[in-house]
Amino acid sequence: MAVQTTNSFVRSSLLEALPAPSSRRGAVAWVKENLLATPKDTILTVLALAFLLWSVPAAVDWLFVKAVWTGADRSACATVVQGGLQPDGWSGACWAFVDAKFQQFMFGRYPLDERWRPILVGVAFVALLVPILIPSVPRKGLNAILLFGIFPIVAFFLLYGGLGLEVVETPLWGGLMVTLILSFVGIAVSLPLGILLALGRRSNMPVIKLFCVVFIEVIRGIPLITVLFMASVMLPLFLPSGWTVDKLLRALIGVAIFASAYMAEVIRGGLQAIPKGQFEGADSLGLGYWQKMRLIVMPQAIKLVIPGIVNTFIGLFKDTSLVSIIGMFDLLGIVRLNFTDTTWATAVTPLTGLIFAGFVFWIFCFGMSRYSGFMERHLDTGHKK
Amino acid sequence: MAIQSTNAPVSSWNMRSLIYDPKFRSYFFQAITILLLVAIVWWIADNTIENLQRSNTASGFQFLSSRAGFDIGQSLIGYSSDATYGRALLVGLLNTLLVAVTGIITATIIGFVVGIGRLSHNWLIAKLCTVYVEVFRNIPPLLVIFFWYSGVLAVLPQPRESLALPFSMFLNNRGLAFPKPIFGDGFWLVSVALLIGIVAAMFVTRWAHQRQDRTGQQFPSIWASIALILGLPALTFLAIGSPLTFDYPVAGRFNLTGGSVIGPEFASLYLALSFYTAAFIAEIVRAGILGVSKGQTEASAALGLKPAKITRLVVVPQAMRIIIPPLTSQYLNLTKNSSLAIAIGFADLVAVGGTILNQTGQAIEVVAIWMIVYLSLSILTSIFMNWFNARMALVER
């Protein structure tokens, strides 16, 4: 009762916490902590800033400011000495070249009147691919059948011709179209083949195991370019005279075989991570070998190695650029072919074309790696220890 | 009843039970596989023999001793167009090894720097390293090679307007010319001294370790090793009267004469493979360092170790265990990617083999040589890295 609540010098409420001192918050503190923490950090920051100041303005200047955006031929991108319009000492990106050749970069020498066909295939591909990539969209099974079963057949007739459409021979195909076809077929073939090879490598049957081990290790031990050489030089030798295999098909076989061996090793990693109890549990339920693999083991194993599978896809996508060495014109091949085009050959054309091709490849690969990261988080059921 | 039940399987021993017998099924499938393989190989061999007979191509490796007739730009051993195909392939193999070894060394250094840089507390450095990794990991190596070859190195000046660098080096679009060392009499003594220095340094390091284990006293073994490895050859060199002269490149009217030249083909392949593989190595290094649990760092800090020593003695040895296996496959990838040399005309094994294949049509033999060489390189690298891995691995009771 002695408590005198009316005393004016006793606080009735708590004070609000003061904000942190100015050296501990805001931009100043961030700079102090992240850029100038120690003398060594300060030196590194200064060096990095010097590098950025040296490289970024020059790159922006070359890529955008001094770049040529419109023009009809090489004179737009050549200096006066080289027979063009630009002042001496000029150097900049020649986007007019990319603009003029864009259609060719996409479709190669596919006939102009028929280009609606690859465009239609591309639209159908995107329309089927996007829903399969978004986890919340239902009917994945139907979607997969459409994408991997029906779509390739329709796409083949649309691209190649037949059934009333004019036939376009594969040597006329080129550009990004060929890159994407090679990657799609490579992915669609290498995943099932890789699963079979991985199962074969873990099989109890010595003959099948030996075959799979030798196949996987030999293919993984040699460079892709030798596999492509084998497909392009030795395949005709192996077949009876008179049989000819299309050049694109040979490259497809080479790329698919190569990717399968790598895929097999990735999937084997997943198979090895499945505890023995899962196999035994499936056995005790009376499931046969293929039921056990299809219903119990593979769904878990594939889920574990999704990052590895996507990495193999990215590798495959990048490796398709090697077909330009055996005389096919994928995106990189067609860009390089155009360096020699006299209408556009200048000192800056090669670099511009390569930067464009690099950017396209980068977009696809970076997209795939981001998507794999997203799937990894999405599928993480929290059972990890 | 008992008799009946034991007899039952015998009486019903028919096709039906055979189908469900796992052992029989296994033999059956294996027999079919063997039959199929034999049939396919037979068919292929038959077709190949027929095709070869029709095109009049002699099979076998006799072609290796006939005259090559083509020139090779860069060669580590003496070679002219009069040399044999065998020698041309040897030149190619040496060039492959040269690119692989130099590329692996450079890629490892860049990769470790960038990988550690990504973990830096310095925001700017970490972001720069991230950008580097994300750019190079996501474009094809072939494109990086072309980028260096026709984007950067082809823009260099003509030989007449060569850029003069320090130490009498010249840079132009035909490559980097540098003074060629000419070794005089008795220079082999210097190599012997270097070898002795390395062996002595190994002994000193081992002795220093044993002494530290016994007495706890430390010995500056790193400085002693450097002194032995560098000092001993230098002293020998001076003692035998400096038998080393240089052949300097001289700028002539149209071209440089004398000296040695690193061609733009080698330079672009080497730079591209180093930068491309370094991005992958950086990710491996980052994962390895993140894989060492934080408790290890904190415990060593509690023991009173300085940050530099924590990194050197606690973090790195444990991170290496995680790093080495994937690092091995990156080294193998770099070696295999060196076959992209054919795209820019650097005479590696695949490029030389491709030329021979076009000239002689000996497709099977050339491809067989490629496969044997690359498989042996893979196996040798794997054996070495497995040995290294076993040395670094956790010693468990």
Automatic annotation (TrEMBL), chain A:
InterPro entries: AA_ABC_transptr_permease_3TM, ArtM/GltK/GlnP/TcyL/YhdX-like, MetI-like, MetI-like_sf
GO MF term list: transmembrane transporter activity
Keyword check for Phosphoprotein: no
Statement: the UniProt record of this protein carries the keyword Repeat: no
Keywords: Cell membrane, Membrane, Transmembrane, Transmembrane helix, Transport
Residue ranges crossing the lipid bilayer per the database entry: 42-65, 116-134, 141-160, 172-199, 211-239, 251-274, 351-369
Span of domain ABC transmembrane type-1: 176-365
Similarity annotation: Belongs to the binding-protein-dependent transport system permease family. HisMQ subfamily.
Protein name per the record: Amino acid ABC transporter permease
Top-level taxonomy: Bacteria, Pseudomonadati, Pseudomonadota, Alphaproteobacteria, Hyphomicrobiales
TrEMBL record, chain B:
GO cellular component: ATP-binding cassette (ABC) transporter complex
InterPro entries: AA_ABC_transptr_permease_3TM (IPR010065), ArtM/GltK/GlnP/TcyL/YhdX-like (IPR043429), MetI-like (IPR000515), MetI-like_sf (IPR035906)
UniProt superkingdom: Bacteria
Official protein name in the record: Amino acid ABC transporter permease
Entry's localization field: Cell inner membrane; Cell membrane
Domain annotation ABC transmembrane type-1: ranges: 93-385
Membrane topology: Multi-pass membrane protein
Keyword terms, alphabetized: Amino-acid transport, Cell membrane, Membrane, Transmembrane, Transmembrane helix, Transport
GO process terms (BP): amino acid transport
